[in-house]
Design brief:
The chain is mainly alpha-helical. The chain has one domain: 434 Repressor (Amino-terminal Domain) (Orthogonal Bundle). Helices cover 58% and strands 0% of the residues. It is built from five helices and no strands. It is globular and about 35 Å long.
Length: 89
């Protein structure tokens, strides 16, 4: 059971950050979006995108919203709270 599948607590932040990073990387790959493209959309460096992907840095709420927009998905899909329904993102 992941943190998303149960009630979240403050101790779940590292697991949630890793899970979002995995989903971020997967959606980048499936949509053909590069780190450069995502970094430009978020106003951060490609190094920071790599840190988000690895779960070593947490995205802000605004960065989550912008990343979802760049990837053509919702924040709920990016965070795993909702399943991706559709073809190409």
């Amino acid at each position: 059971m992941t943190a998303i599948d149960r009630k979240l607590g403050p101790d779940d932040a590292p697991e949630v950050n890793r899970m979002i990073g995995v989903r971020l990387a997967a959606f980048m790959a499936s949509t053909g979006r590069s780190r450069d493209k995502l970094a430009s959309g978020l106003g951060v460096s490609t190094h920071m995108i790599a840190r988000f992907e690895s779960g070593n840095s947490a995205m802000t709420a605004v960065q989550l919203m912008l990343a979802a927009r760049v990837l053509g998905i919702t924040t709920a899909v990016l965070t795993g709270e909702e399943s991706f329904k559709g073809g190409a993102a």
